[in-house]
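WARN no homologs supplied; continuing
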Amino acid sequence: MSYNWPSKLTASGLISAAQAKIDAIIDMFDLAVEPANGKILKYNDTTNKFEVATESSVAATQQICAIVNRNAVQSIPSSNTPNQIVFNTELKDTDNAFNTATGTFTVPSGGDGAYHIRGKVVLSGLSSGEQYSLSIRKNGSASGGIQEQQTIHHNGSSNYIATTLVLDAGDTINIWITQETGGALNTAQDTNCSMQIYRVSTFDV
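OK structure emitted
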């Protein structure tokens, strides 16, 4: 691309240098087709150019969210063995990422990013001095998958567990509970046995 610069400026050599920089910037934009209204540009680090983002690229910036709970109590045995909370009711699931049969959230394809996870599980029937433990686990039940753990005391002020994790597509998230009171206890239900998970950042990981 060329411009008709005044002769005094071109003679100084400044214009040729500026022209080269302008051309380099223009070359970074691969806009053979004029983008439609509302489209965004995405930098391609392979071609070193800005390109009009495809629909799939735009979709990757959208919110991913699941809000779930239990619509009935779940019996938790007294043992050293963690039990997974199976949230069986979806209030919101933007990407069909939550399985109510297994109580598992799976990060969808293209859903890499940072996720905030928050769970609330009230256990009924605790006596004074008794407690239970909640954990957020990534990719299975093994203790190595524990990302956050919280001990809940009888008459305690908090029965929540929360953390923020960097997750890749295919990673799974569950909430587990352990109690050793000497007998089986039931969870509460609805808002007192619930989980929310949503992506808070869309950066690639």
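The chain has three helices and 15 strands.
OK
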